[in-house]
Protein 1
Amino acid sequence: MDLPQHVLVVPSPAQGHVKPFMKLAYNLAYHGIKVTFANSEFVEAKILGAMSEADKEQCPIRLVSYSDGLEACPAEERNGARLIASLKEVMPKNLEKLIEQINQSDNKEPITCVIGDLTVGWTLEVARKMGLKQVAVWPAGPASLALALRIPQLIETGVIDENGSTMKNELICLSEEIPVWNSWELTWISPGKPALQKILFDFSLAINQVVKNPIIVLCNTYYELDSSSCAMIPGILPIGPLPAISNLNPCSGSFLSQDSTCLSWLDKQPPNSVIYIAFGSTAMFSQKQFDELALGLELSGHSFLWVVRPNIVTGSSHEHYPDNFLEKIASRGKIVEWAPQEKVLAHSSISCFFSHCGWNSTMEGVSNGVPFLCWPYVWDQFDNKKYICEMWKVGLGLDYDEDGIISRHEIKTKIHNLVTNDGMKMNARKLMEDAKKSVSHGGGSYENFKSLVKYLGA
Ligand code: UDP
């Protein structure tokens, strides 16, 4: 007799990975698949701490955890090269042990398949070694995966060296329909951090080993959004943007508690009037840049909702706003530490999204038809900005001044240019309609998701 299928979902232990993986897991559970979700112990404590009791009660998946080997490491040092090294050396063995334990205690419904994060390809290697089915998830845009798959050829032709740096500052072009990469925009480039860059580059290179064997690669996109990159990726299955499941909180998986007071504040604002400013889970600012951003928002004269994470200013334990800033903006500005971002973007009072262009934020903005102001700072964010501004024409970038700062005047001007640009608003609405079609009955992502559910054996 065939054993029932039981899927273990394993993201990389970072906010921008855990949250979309959780959404995927919820969608699979909703379609009748038995899902267990494996976090590092550190991440699990964070997401349980941020979930409401109701969210925990309604959670349709089982949460389990395993050690990342960094118990002795202070929270603020769990990043960069140290975390990533542990990801590679300690976590694969611990994941294997976890699967063995689950299968011993749950021998009627052992894990039969691992849905693993392709950025940490060892999740899939562990599954392969243990004879389990494997499905990969690429948690960024398809262009960055197409780039990673081109690395062996770029090394062979001498365009990049074995550390991922370009030899001659060449532009990297995969096809005429895909924006080119400048040498400083490659996904793994980490200015001033050569050890981190080498690790990120090796991770990108290692992806080639995983996709060498036929494997399904799930991606949070829809085909038409970037058909050229999708066409370059063997096994790709675009399933995005995954819908929120009614009754369940689509934002489970957050590391910080969401401050929902911003939703009632938004209810009181006129339609299409509020700028939403959020830079994801890792972007940080110098105090000077933070001040210019605050003063730019003040100068703009617009209402705004600004996510200011704890420790968002480098080297400072709490935020210092410019003198009298909080008093001056009190009647038209709201600041929160962490927002229910998807609900915010879906709110009718939001006029545009001032974003760092992380892939999840990009897809959440696209799904809700909001134009973007783009402020990318690392990794694939430069690439996502090019799609937003040049390919889809739904956003504007900001220019740095000669001191390497984005000035308050630049911010004020670009906000004005964006909110008065009806063409971009129309383009953004069109993208939202396309996204909706794709996940509706008969659409590409809808059909792909159905075939995934069938493959997983519901
Ligand atoms: N997010 C959120 N509340 C916030 C800011 C961000 O829930 O106040 C979520 C956002 O909806 C997205 C994720 O955090 O799903 C950030 O992922 P993204 O890829 O955009 O950026 P990263 O954090 O990986 O840089």
Note: The longest helix spans residues 422-439.
Protein 2
Amino acid sequence: MLEELYEEIILDHYRRPRNKGRVDPSDFTVHDSNPLCGDEIDITARLADGKIAELKFDGRGCAICMASASIMTQKLRGRTLLEAQQFIGGFLNMMRGETPFGGKELGDLKALEGVLKFPVRVKCATLAWNAALQGLRQPSSPSAPPEAGKPWSPSAPPEAGKPADKQS
Ligand code: ZN
């Protein structure tokens, strides 16, 4: 019964993928494939303020691969780069059967945990996540965050408020 439910979740994401397409322009694009199954995937993302502002996937593959990518885009959008990497790490651990991925975060991911019973399909489920991780680890984009210690408010007019020196 429970397994049927999980199957439903996967099929739902497969039939109605979320965030499918390409982010353009993108801060990173990663292509990865799983020759064993014929899965091909492209992950594109746009970053802003140290967060994943947009994340999309494109490609072709089996239901597990496509559903997993769809779920991933939903889970990672809006996270900081560090949070996203930690989240991916947690998921990959779960898919190695190491640490159960607990907590309220799980949601639709619970459906993918069932793939563990089919070791040949694990690569399908992790493909998008590994690709995203590669992208997030790429040496930083040109739009590096501004120096942390320097608060600079663009709204403060530089020196404008200072009355000019009296010119006698
Ligand atoms: Zn596959």
Note: The chain has a mean pLDDT of 84.
Protein 3
Amino acid sequence: MDQNPKSRRTFLQNTFLGGFAAVSADFLTKIAAQAAPPSKGRLPVVIATWDNRKATDAAWQVLARGGRAFDAVEAGARIPEADPEDTSVGYGGFPDRDGNVTLDACIMDEFGNAGSITYLQHIMHPISVARRLLEKTPHVMLSGDGALEFALSEGFKKENLLTETARLAWENWKIKSEYKPVINTERHDTIGIVAVDAQQRVAGACTTSGMAFKMRGRVGDSPVIGAGMFADNEVGAAAATGLGEMVLKTLGSFLLVEEMRRGKHPQKAAEEVVRRLAHKYPKEARENQVCYVAVDRKGRHGAFSLQPGFNYALYQAGVNTVHEAGSFFRK
Ligand code: SD4
């Protein structure tokens, strides 16, 4: 599925916390952004991080029959959640350093309602639990045991999400047991999925098992409204993948939507948010990956990342495609 496994590997080799010498912001300003030509708008549209074409396809089934973007992004997010081969989302996700699979997800609708679930164990579809929280309670975030209790009370099934492949990867990691959190090193990755339907309703979702072998209790950007994902019906929506800590410190998806609100095309807005990261955190930016996808309510889209190797799935005008995003740093 990964269209460019070699470049993906390259960035993964370069992707970890700690290590290299600091890079000056001046140096970074000299590196030109490699921008794709800005897209024209068309509705409906759905865009997802990585080559999640099965997810954009599921979302498109909703959009194509005139359905709601909110239903579309949930349907899309559920695909990798149930896929045991996707080792960074839902069932099959790599566990934390103690062997627990813990899931984070969030979702927003066209009214600005939000639902978020963090540190959820044993439930395959955190995105649907987040939706249920949004619809049935006055709350926005629910975590850990409380989230599990809520899910069970809503009829979600408790199951073992640790696959044999993920368990073996964890056993293997334990040999050195080096605590150096790495961005997931598999071909599929966290899904952020944003859509605008034919009635110009905007929605977004994001779901992940987080960083592989993370510290127990660690929560990343993905369930944080405005960090891993943000949707505003007046403007558009954005979602992130990559090193959550960097996204959290800049509230990247919120920032991206605000850049669009000020008139930027989603592509230019995504480039601006990545550029901001590179200026503010030059050393971390050099050593890690952060990626964004975005749509505005006209149906224009954009995508950009720090490092090369990020691709995204786009379903628009009846065609499901995968594209290599531009990046701040060159190969
Ligand atoms: C996190 N942003 O937990 C997620 C991980 C991710 O590709 O996107 N991996 O930090």
Note: The chain has one domain: 40-327.
